[in-house]
Amino acid sequence: MKIGLLTSGGDCPGLNAVIRGAVLKGVISHTTEFVGFRWGWRGVVERDLMPITRHDVRGLARQGGTILGSSRTNPFEGEGGGPENIQRMLDEEGIDAIIAIGGEGTLTAARRLYDEGGIKVIGVPKTIDNDLLATDYSFGFDTAVEIATEAIDRLRTTADSHGRCMVLEVMGRHVGWIALHSGMAGGAHAILIPEQPQSIEQICEWVESVRERGRAPLVVVAEGFTLPDMTEAHSHKGLDAFNRPRLGGIAEMLAPMIEERTGIESRATVLGHIQRGGEPTAYDRVLATRLGMAAVEAVYDESWGNMVTLRGTEIKTVSIAEATGSLNTVPQSRYDEARILFG
Amino acid sequence: MKIGLLTSGGDCPGLNAVIRGAVLKGVISHTTEFVGFRWGWRGVVERDLMPITRHDVRGLARQGGTILGSSRTNPFEGEGGGPENIQRMLDEEGIDAIIAIGGEGTLTAARRLYDEGGIKVIGVPKTIDNDLLATDYSFGFDTAVEIATEAIDRLRTTADSHGRCMVLEVMGRHVGWIALHSGMAGGAHAILIPEQPQSIEQICEWVESVRERGRAPLVVVAEGFTLPDMTEAHSHKGLDAFNRPRLGGIAEMLAPMIEERTGIESRATVLGHIQRGGEPTAYDRVLATRLGMAAVEAVYDESWGNMVTLRGTEIKTVSIAEATGSLNTVPQSRYDEARILFG
Amino acid sequence: MKIGLLTSGGDCPGLNAVIRGAVLKGVISHTTEFVGFRWGWRGVVERDLMPITRHDVRGLARQGGTILGSSRTNPFEGEGGGPENIQRMLDEEGIDAIIAIGGEGTLTAARRLYDEGGIKVIGVPKTIDNDLLATDYSFGFDTAVEIATEAIDRLRTTADSHGRCMVLEVMGRHVGWIALHSGMAGGAHAILIPEQPQSIEQICEWVESVRERGRAPLVVVAEGFTLPDMTEAHSHKGLDAFNRPRLGGIAEMLAPMIEERTGIESRATVLGHIQRGGEPTAYDRVLATRLGMAAVEAVYDESWGNMVTLRGTEIKTVSIAEATGSLNTVPQSRYDEARILFG
Amino acid sequence: MKIGLLTSGGDCPGLNAVIRGAVLKGVISHTTEFVGFRWGWRGVVERDLMPITRHDVRGLARQGGTILGSSRTNPFEGEGGGPENIQRMLDEEGIDAIIAIGGEGTLTAARRLYDEGGIKVIGVPKTIDNDLLATDYSFGFDTAVEIATEAIDRLRTTADSHGRCMVLEVMGRHVGWIALHSGMAGGAHAILIPEQPQSIEQICEWVESVRERGRAPLVVVAEGFTLPDMTEAHSHKGLDAFNRPRLGGIAEMLAPMIEERTGIESRATVLGHIQRGGEPTAYDRVLATRLGMAAVEAVYDESWGNMVTLRGTEIKTVSIAEATGSLNTVPQSRYDEARILFG
Fold first, then answer.
1. Residue B259: its chain D contacts at CB < 8 A?
2. Site positions for Important for substrate specificity, renumbered to this chain (chains A, B, C, D) (predicted)?
């Protein structure tokens, strides 16, 4: 049996651990062969492949990024795209199944390839923001939270030494999990997430109450947070001429607003790409390894069109449809819980 | 309302975060007062108390250890021990309920105090080994795994540079969770846990097969692992005259045995106390904070004799009886999964 | 004897270790008393003092920031400013000498207070950028380099996974030491520092040669780096309406320029305040502790108007004039050395 | 020109960075070729070589250990040993010079090969203990100190939570630099080093005075520390049947002695191999890279029989004789300085 692996979308700590887990599972227990498609779906539609042996995955559990490369190519586009072309390629290359590691877009495309063309595909959910339903946590999230928490720990001493308000922007375009967890872990005085718009007045009230207790306020904000009265124009402030992700978007907007209203000197820090690179935490290495192994198991079970997930302490297989379509947002109860800590 | 807090048994990263979570929850949302019993149950039976204010818990989420101190005192012993004396003390001090943070012994004692004397007590499970049922994970475990994984990462380069076999001993007297997770995360070539006795011949076979693939073998062993033919005397080798935990017990026994049988130079390292001290990971800070908050909630709910636990992503309240009595051992399926990676 | 301590200017890992070293040295070996001036020179001119006991410095070696607070107040300004007012305050408070921990501005002011008013003052150099002459290294620098290097390690995996060019901006307004050392440690493909203006053409040539070798380019740039043809306006691009340090200044300018010229997708990351907060490295803790102890020694030696410095492995006392007036820039030889590694 | 590289003796963080620095320097600026001798001098006497290209050193700055392997083989022994055989091998392999990276034994042997046989050799000092004269610091030392300091930080919370005395054993057979620096950085209450024998009574006095101040004592001891009345037998307690480095030697001896005399529960921790493996700190990466580059420079300068060293901020070339023969011990003044902090 020969399995093709691909990693798609933004990189995420643990991608290589998934690859390693899959290959070791297949090679050792079932003498399966592996190939990697380079640069995500692009390798599929452009037939850009590389063999992956046991030797190639040595030491990959702790290595950030993906040895296969990644891109945002759509498998339904381009000359080699679509189910028919892909099936022909698979037949010619002798590939029996695809394990696609990616976010909502990749998983949805994988499902569609199976539904429309019978492509034998298994999904592995990848979202550093933890925004996919049907999995308790996704790999990479724990690492991102850890890095954001370390940043909060560092910013706190600067805040205290200068009596400043520090505003830290972390990842989270549509959901606020990284902000919620790092904010709780780091003892932030306000956590701002896309699910819970807050007025600038409310934010400044929190900031001032912290100041009144003699402390330097620390605000964690997810990149996707918006003020209720933010106009379209505001929310896109920071998108540069090349239409790339904003550097210093919402945090850079909030810091001067807070300073102006409260008179407390305020500074913005944008963590950016540092959150998604480098070595995964042990938690993410274990989770990613187990998901990779389970994906190969799912191939052996011919569980096409499904994906592997974490439920409690168990790895399960669920329909991709279950995991996509709507977002895993922060529920009100979790935000209320965290809000008590704001003080 | 006034709540008394205590931490009992070996220290564990996250104890202070539980205390902080409880105090913030009580102070901010319900104007509850808190006192801490010093040195675990000893503070209860000896009436050694300290007030804990909001100011006292500042910055505690990231601080290892416990500001209350800990010991292994039994609340049924001593002059002030037993339900009657304790109830009298609580009445005189105006304390309405106790939140007891501790392992199996503490939780069982807490339950007995409630059953036999109606002492209003809520438990918070604390076990760095992750050996308690009824909670998916306990705080401190993630930190211990992270530290053990970093140690494996470091030992690997020494192993490779000298062509040596490194044997790392991690915590786990009765269950092998720390060894299992750190071994998977660090890419160990053999994981030895109490639940799965292995013969020295099997261990040496794994070690030699690693050598044959041109690599330096890395073995992770839980302190409670035993060889099938280990006599009583052997298994206690290393227990010193003061009956204290062995330093370099099983690893120091295995390394020369492996070297003698395989001819591969072998070295033992014992992580020891480093695994249980210092700053908790972000994961443990969040979990411990939530448990502390939920314990106060359980007090308000008068959920006496119960404890708070993690199930999936939710904090639940369960009967202490559910969590004690038998151990949360590594199931066969998880060991089989990990064993595939030994290669 | 009573000594007054103050910390002035931007915070820096190791400030608290200096305070602890000074207090322990004075308290234990000479029964000296200490007071701290709050918020730097502001505490001097506004007579805002706090006693510092041995108990207060417990655990401070590893704590980032400064327990005294800091500001940029000038001791020659304000109602209580100038040598005469300060001497009167010192007399009234029974303070025999001041140890001033700060950068070039603070040291120069300290010297002037001594020259013009005979104020008994000893300086401790503080510059995270390492831009002071007369000391081999200043505390905080090693920590900043370590943090920047970790960021490079993390960015590398993202760069490789996406075939992108990553541009990391680190501190260094006038000198490029942090960029030089972190760039060498992290294996950057180009290091851009204020002392060595490079044309955008040269930068793109380096970037493209990396790409041709099949790697993803990683550029480290000090915040004070300028392109030779940068106009005044450009170089201030990013200074916001409140005249605060630019967020994403030079890196945000360079990334799109590189992308436009080379066609390689490029991303900017600005480390910012994270570099100056949090726990110091062991190196900085030792250096800062020794400097604090030596400053008290210098008080006992009545070495007024001087400062303590590191030379090789020794702590020396030198005239403040030696250390100020000109900058400790990266010499050509060190840049040439690093440039070989760009490849 | 072709240069042969070798790494000898115990592994040390930064060895790979030296190799990388040398190769990049030679390849890029002078089109020099490199080969590596495998397993230290053994590769020389057994003619076990591998080519090292620029591609092979990619990413090595941050990788612990040595890609060449290491051993303690003596180049004057064995069939291929001695200057004549080695010169013949070099001639036949077309190798012009050897860069030997190692400790006192390696450097002395290198010098002897040059003195007795004219072998063109340059030394790079490697000692994690920092026990070589003629260099301010050696690479690997900073990493070891950082790891030991992190261990102290972790042990402190356990000590405080249980009111215990913790005894941490760090590396340092003949000199106490690692104990001195990590003890100062971590705020140890007693630092015990080979250069300064202390009686058990003195140690217990320090421990008790800490207890009296309400704190939990933390003792750092270098593995080579001895009590003044330690017999030969005692000092070798812990050496096992295979004559290998003691696991838990001096710390395991001291902890029960302290407990017995003071009544304070005491625990020993032995850091062991963890100190010498894994990623180097940024400091060590920069130092090692510069030394590797300078060694190639020394080859071009035909500075045979010499070694490269750090003096202040500069890399210098000195005679090997200067660096060997006597040890770089901790001077009395540095111990007195640290002792003030014991309290």
1. 242
2. 105
